[in-house]
Every structure is written in C-alpha cells, then in structure tokens.
Task: inverse folding
C-alpha cells in the first residue's frame, strides 16, 4: 500500500520536471538523431522522408571530418593529461595548507569556473595575441614576437585554464575523505614523504583523479567557445565544425550526424571509463 | 483496562519480521522502558505507536480508542527523538509553541503554556535562543518541553539520552524522571542502556529479536532474569552449570562438565573467604579498580568467575592470591535454556 | 601550520597566477585610455566603459541575459524542488531513472543540446523566441538546483518532520514551516548557481537566439570573432564584477566552498 502511495507522490512531484525534460530533452535529441539520417540537398535543403547513411559515411571517409575528430581527440587527451599533472599536486598542496589560506586559495582557484567562458577566452587572446601582452613583453626584452593565438598552443592553454577546476574538485573531495593520521601512521612506520605520497595518498585519491579525467576529457572534446575564439578559422574542433555545418553551410543533417557522433563517443568513453573505475577502485575503497 | 495497549502487534519488512506478536499494557502515569540491543525491534515498536511506521498486523489502543491506523497528527502523542529533531530555524520558544499553533490555541494561551513548560524544564532564560546556541542537555530539554506542552496522553522517548556524554546523561535521567513525576504523564522510553532503564523506569520491557522476553519491575528484573540473554544484558552475571539436589534446590556442579541447569550468579553476591574454606577454591588472575568497587577475575576448576567487592578502604587482594568463594545458595537463579530464536 | 615545502609553494604560486592572469588582464585593459588593447600604463580611463553604455545592442543583450537568467533560474527551482523531494523522500519504480534524466544535461554537451533544440524549435517555428530560449535554459540549469536541493534534503534531520507531524502539522504546513526553511540554503544556493550558469551560457544559446533575443555572452562571442577592441575588455570586466557580486551572495547564503566542491 505504501509503495503505491510513494509511487503516486513521487511521480506527482516529478511531473513538471518530467514533462519539461521529455519535451525539451528527449524529444529534440530524438529529432536530431532522425535528422542525421535525412537526405540533404544543397538546392532544396533537408528532404524529410528520404533516408541515407551518407552523413555517417562522410564522417568515416572524408579526411576533413575524421581529421577534425582526431585533432579534437588528441587536444582533449593532452588537456586531460596536463590537468592531471597540474591539478593533482595542486589539490594536494591546497589540502595541506593552514586554515585561512586553504579556503581562500581554493575559492581563488575554483571561482574562474563561474565566470563566463567567453570572458576567459577573451582574456587569453589579450595575452597571446600577435601584439598581445606576452609578445609586447618579449619585444620589450628585445626578442621576436611569437605566433601563439590561433595555434593549438593557445587552445590547449585556455582549455587547461577552463578545465583545471574540474580536475581539482574531485581530487580535493577524495583528499577530504582521507584519514590524515594514515599519513602519520605511514611516516611513523618509516616511510619517506615521497613513499607516503606514492603508496598511501595516490591510491586513495585515484577515484577522484579518474572521475576528474572523465569530466575534463568530455568537456574538452565538446568545447565550443575556446576553439571558436582562440583557434581561428583554421584550427577547427568538432564543436566549431558542427556550428559551421548548421549556421554557415546550412547542412543540418551533416551537423546532426557530427553532433550525434560526438554524443555517442562521449557517452561511450564515459561508460567504459566508469566501468573501469568501478572494477578497479570502487570495490577496494568500499564506495 | 490499561491506558495504552499493544495487541499482537507485528511489523514485517518484506520477509523480515521486525516485531513479532507483541503484547504490552501500560497503565496511566506509568514509566515503562523498552530495553534491548540494537535491531531488537524496540524503535520500530515506538515508531508504530507514534504512527510513523505502518502496522502489519495487530492493534494499538489508547484509552480504549483504536489508533492503529490513525495519522501521527491525530494521535496527539508527545514524541522526543534521539536526534531531538528541533526545528533549527526557530527559537526555543517557537519550537515549543509549534504544536500549540497547529492546534490553533489562542496567542495568550500559547504564551502562558509555553512559559509554564519552559519553567518546568528550567529553560526560561534561554527562550529566545536558537537550537544551535544550546548545549546538548539544553536541546534535550527543549525537545521534552515541545512534546509536553501539547499535554499528550502518552510521552514517547526514543533513545533520549544517547547523544549526551556520561555525566550529563545521568543528570538528565533524574531530570526526566522528575518531570515525568511532576506532570504524571504516561511514558514509554526506548533505550539500549540497561542502567538507564533500571534507574528511572517503573517497569522494564526486555526485547530481543522482535519479541518481548521479560516484563518486570527493575529490581525484580535484575534479581530474577528469566533467560541467559537477559542475565548477561541486564547487569553482569556469572553463568554456571548446575543440577538439582535431593531436595530439588539448584546447586552449582563443582566439577567441569555439563550440568542439566544453567545458573546465574551476580558478581556482588559472592563472598571471598580464606583459601580452603567456602564452596569453591580459586586464584585471583586479574584485578580492576572501579572506584567504589574492586572487580576480581578468579580462576576456579569450573571456569573463570567474576567477583565484585565493595571498596571499604582495606587493601585489596593481589593477583595470584589463593581464595575461597562462597555464596548463599538461594541467590542462584535458574535460567530458561530455551532462548528466543535469533 | 603549512606543511608545504618551498618547491610546492612555488608551484602553487604559478598555478594561482595562471588561473587569475587572464581575468586580471581583462580588468586592467578595460581601463586603458588607448585605442588598442594595452595595459593602462599612462593613466586610467573610463572611456571604454562609456563606450559600452552607448552600445544599445549590448545593453539590450545584457537585459535579455538578466531577465532570462532570473526567470529561468526561478522556473528551474520551482520544478527542481518537488523533484528533489520526490527523489529523496519516496521509493518508487523509475526513481533512479528520473534522477539520472534530470541530471543528464550536465553530461550532455551543450553543443548537442543546442542543435537539438534548434531542430525542435525550427520544426515548431519558434526559433529565436525568448520564451522557448528560456525553457531551453531551464533544462540546462535544472540539474544544478536539483543537486543542491537533493543534498540539502538528504542532509536535513528527517525526524524534525516527524516531530512536526506528530505535533499536528498538515502536509502543506509541514512543507511551508519545516521542510522549506530547513532546505532553504540549498534552494537559494541552487537558484544562484542556476542564475550564474544561465547568465554565462553561450554554446546552446548561440543556436537558438535571434538578433533581438541575443544574450550577452552570445553577443560578446560574435563580437569577439569579428573585432577585438578595448570595449570588449570593458564588457568583460563588467561581467566579472557582476559574477563576483553574485558569488559573494552565494557565499553568504550557502557557502561558496560547498557549491564548488560539494562539501555538505
């Protein structure tokens, strides 16, 4: 009896959200999936009712598209690696700080997260531009200006800037769960600081690192504003190509196919990663 | 007829029986404790009485009225929760006044009744504070006041003292008893602490594995535990094998091995006498100082026996010391062997 | 009691500089008196801020974003609070599915959501409509409110509700006088986080806005792809100031560290 009552109340309270999410999330995604199989003609546009796999064939055969997927993949992978290399030690350093500083720096490092990504991208273009502040400084010191804007370097640098908080947060969270006296126990048993780090701390924060990796990779692979503003017309990533297909080429089915592929790859990476993490760490850490 | 009655009360969670066919009668003005280890069904029983848990079978009668399926609000019982469950966003006064406001009592009456109950729990100076500004003991008093102010027919206390430290717990035990006597309210308290149950209850109900195994006044419960479980759970006990002598009285078997009876002997009932005399010979293996008492563990041919002696200022016995043990045979208790299935 | 060595602290200093440099530079350049993007070496000037306020299109976009964020965050809160209570209070078939569905916009790329909404809105003939833009934002920001309210609802002492119930409170009174005040920090924090996320959203919005409904981030994005001048720095500095103000409020009502790292 109480199960029925719970079910009724549960659905009643979720009904508004459910209606909205069905109408504006499930339905449009389904429509986009359908669209990606529609025939497209440059003269007429989308031909409803006519079906093709041409878009997906294009993705696999046209070097323009698969190179962009490959580029997106290696840029995202590199950004993820850099975030691990910078974010994990930084989170550890933060966790070892004294009380006022720890929260001050934590907030200082994490709050850029809440500032518009357009603003942050613009900030980097100020720094990295041909006559940007870094090049002005180089010239003032007698060097020759370096081309940084509209190169992978600029995109990667700005992506690391945007993604670093997403790595620090989960690592920080798992560091919070650590028993500080485990460090001391290891030290009292004769371990060096480096051994404590490698044998006690790292294994325990690994789940945090792995979930951070997942978020950073996923967000980098689908990032739009950073490559759009700092990659220029040449350096395209998947998201900027989708934008071109929709709003310049007006080839919506092609754009839809790329978007669907992006979503599927993202979900696939997340699911397999999750499974890996679960198998490896969740059990041993009893989460 | 009793004031609060549980008749064959049952609670099943799927295949698990949390409470099995529980019968209990509580008289008006009585203070009854439900005592048992965690998971024994005592809290579920209380939650069924309060109306937070659906009853699977059986009936709950309050002053002759069947409240088995009544909503918590319409039962009008006073409940004090283990976590106190104070409303953190309200002052002490507003917390206490909440139930009266729900009953649409006039502002003047609320003012009067809240002041009176705050006086009763000695919180008048703290009326305008928020729960977070109070100590654990003070929060406990607010929870008590909030439950009492609606003048409920029955007060239900769910582990009311388990969040307090030892000193405060003892103080609050007496405080709860004082208030209960002053108001004369029928009270049912759930606890896992046998000392707490013994010290302030009129009657103690021992529960184990979803069943009531003994209902007695505290002194009688301590002196005459029915089962082996109760003798160990309520106070300390030496469990000994025994049999009946020619006259049918129970006696301890002085050789190792099985006797037909299980006997309980309280540690403070045993006398220590010079070696060579008494009923049993032994040697002190461990000695613990408990302040008002000494606790000895004594090795004997029938196993280790715990003895407690009053600290009367004389030098205690050293470890290794040989002693004799003696006891009045009428203080041996025969325990029922057939225990409740786990 | 700092346990970090000098090497660790230098590393930390570099990270902090890296994280703050672009924001600090934007704020400094906004005050330049020059016509080019340069640091204000020769005195501070407000001319580029004045230039912003003379741009009717930017002002319009600012109001679009502000109204959008306020309304969308409010709607998201109105649907997320009951959903969060359903998910935390009741056990029913499909509960985990609903929870996953309502949180899924966090892991679905905004780009994909943007093109999906564009398709739907185009078929409905409502693309560029402010109302539908708003609904799109509600979908995207609901998870933020949901997460905080779920955390608050799990964190609150349920026996306080039982206490109120046994004292005679009706279902509605219970929600109004006990549950809502107790989860209020989570609700308010969720609203503010949703507000910030809606106000900053660019990737989805760029697909489903028209020139008249363009939000400020979209306007800035489009402007920055075409030309770069100090006015853009002034707009950015204003956005930073507004975000900082919101964050200070967020810190007061809920605790910024709790929002950011999810400590409860």
Result:
């Amino acid at each position: 009896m109480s199960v029925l009552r719970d079910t009724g109340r549960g659905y009643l309270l979720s009904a508004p959200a459910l209606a909205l999410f069905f109408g504006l999330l499930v339905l449009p995604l389904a429509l986009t999936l359908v669209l990606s199989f529609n025939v497209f003609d440059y003269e007429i546009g989308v031909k409803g009712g006519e079906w093709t796999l041409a878009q997906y064939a294009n993705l696999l055969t046209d070097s323009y598209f698969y190179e962009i997927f490959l580029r997106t993949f290696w840029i995202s992978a590199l950004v993820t690696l850099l975030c691990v290399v910078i974010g994990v030690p930084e989170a550890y350093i933060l966790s070892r700080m004294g009380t006022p500083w720890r929260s001050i720096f934590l907030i200082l490092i994490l709050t850029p997260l809440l500032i518009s990504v357009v603003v942050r991208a613009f900030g980097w273009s100020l720094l990295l531009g041909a006559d940007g502040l870094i090049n002005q400084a180089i010239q003032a010191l007698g060097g020759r200006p370096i081309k940084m804007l509209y190169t992978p370097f600029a995109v990667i640098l700005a992506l690391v800037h945007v993604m670093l908080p997403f790595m620090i947060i989960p690592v920080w969270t798992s560091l919070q769960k650590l028993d500080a006296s485990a460090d001391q126990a290891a030290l009292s048993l004769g371990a060096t600081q480096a051994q404590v780090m490698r044998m006690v701390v790292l294994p325990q924060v690994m789940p945090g690192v792995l979930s951070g990796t997942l978020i950073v990779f996923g967000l980098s692979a689908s990032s739009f504003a950073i490559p759009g503003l700092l990659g220029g017309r040449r350096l395209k990533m998947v998201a900027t190509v989708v934008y071109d297909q929709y709003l310049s080429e007006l080839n919506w089915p092609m754009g839809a196919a790329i978007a669907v592929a992006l979503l599927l790859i993202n979900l696939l990476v997340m699911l397999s990663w999750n499974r890996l993490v679960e198998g490896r760490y969740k059990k041993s850490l009893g989460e | 007829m009793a004031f609060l009655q549980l008749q064959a009360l049952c609670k099943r969670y799927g295949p698990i029986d949390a409470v099995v066919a529980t019968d209990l009668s509580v008289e008006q003005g009585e203070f009854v404790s439900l005592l048992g280890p965690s998971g024994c069904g005592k809290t579920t029983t209380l939650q069924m009485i309060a109306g937070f848990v659906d009853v699977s079978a059986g009936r709950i009668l309050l002053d002759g009225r069947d409240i088995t399926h009544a909503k918590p609000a319409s039962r009008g019982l006073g409940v004090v929760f283990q976590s106190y469950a104070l409303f953190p966003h309200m002052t002490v006064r507003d917390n206490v006044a909440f139930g009266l406001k729900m009953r649409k009592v006039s502002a003047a009456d609320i003012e009067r009744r809240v002041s009176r109950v705050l006086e009763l729990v000695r919180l008048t100076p703290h009326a305008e504070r928020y729960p977070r500004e109070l100590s654990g003991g003070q929060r406990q008093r607010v929870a008590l006041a909030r439950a009492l102010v609606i003048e409920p027919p029955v007060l239900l206390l769910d582990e009311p003292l388990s969040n307090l430290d030892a000193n405060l717990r003892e103080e609050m035990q007496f405080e709860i008893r004082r208030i209960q006597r002053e108001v004369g309210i029928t009270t049912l308290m759930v606890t896992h602490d046998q000392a707490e149950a013994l010290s302030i209850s009129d009657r103690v109900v021992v529960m184990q594995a979803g069943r009531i195994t003994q209902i007695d006044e505290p002194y009688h419960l301590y002196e005459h535990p029915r089962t082996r479980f109760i003798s160990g759970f309520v106070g300390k006990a030496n469990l000994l094998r025994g049999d009946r002598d020619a006259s049918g009285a129970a006696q301890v078997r002085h050789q190792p091995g099985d006797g037909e009876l299980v006997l309980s002997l309280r540690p403070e009932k045993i006398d220590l006498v010079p070696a060579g005399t008494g009923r049993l010979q032994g040697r002190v293996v461990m000695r613990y100082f408990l302040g008002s008492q000494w606790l000895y563990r004594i090795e004997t041919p029938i196993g280790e026996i715990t003895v407690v002696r009053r600290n009367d200022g004389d030098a205690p016995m050293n470890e290794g010391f040989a002693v004799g043990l003696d006891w009045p045979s009428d203080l041996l208790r025969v325990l029922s062997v057939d225990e409740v299935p786990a | 009691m700092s346990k970090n060595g000098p090497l660790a602290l230098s590393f930390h200093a570099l990270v902090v500089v890296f994280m703050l440099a672009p924001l600090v530079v934007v704020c400094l350049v906004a005050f330049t008196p020059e016509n080019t993007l340069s640091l204000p070496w020769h005195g501070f000037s407000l001319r580029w801020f004045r230039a912003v306020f003379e741009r009717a299109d930017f002002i319009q976009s600012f109001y679009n974003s502000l109204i959008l964020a306020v309304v969308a965050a409010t709607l998201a809160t109105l649907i997320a609070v009951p959903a969060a209570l359903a998910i935390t209070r009741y056990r029913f078939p499909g509960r985990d599915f609903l929870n996953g569905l309502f949180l899924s916009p966090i892991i679905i790329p905004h780009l994909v959501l943007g093109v999906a909404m564009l398709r739907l809105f185009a078929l409905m003939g409502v693309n560029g409509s402010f109302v539908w833009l708003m609904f799109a934002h509600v979908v995207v920001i609901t998870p933020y409110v949901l997460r905080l309210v779920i955390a608050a609802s799990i964190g609150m002492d349920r026996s306080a509700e039982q206490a109120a119930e046994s004292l005679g409170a009706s279902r509605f009174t219970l929600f109004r006088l006990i549950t809502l005040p107790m989860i209020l920090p989570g609700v308010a924090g969720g609203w503010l986080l949703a507000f910030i996320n809606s106000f900053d959203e660019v990737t989805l919005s760029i697909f489903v806005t028209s020139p008249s409904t363009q939000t400020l981030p979209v306007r800035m994005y489009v402007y920055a792809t075409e030309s770069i001048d100090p006015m853009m720095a002034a707009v950015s500095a204003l956005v930073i100031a507004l975000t900082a103000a919101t964050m200070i409020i967020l810190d007061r009502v809920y605790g910024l560290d709790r929002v950011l790292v999810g400590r409860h």
About this structure: The first helix of chain B runs from residue 42 to 50. The mean pLDDT of chain B is 90. The interface with chain A takes residues 54 of chain B (CB under 8 Å). The two ends of chain B are 33 Å apart (CA to CA).
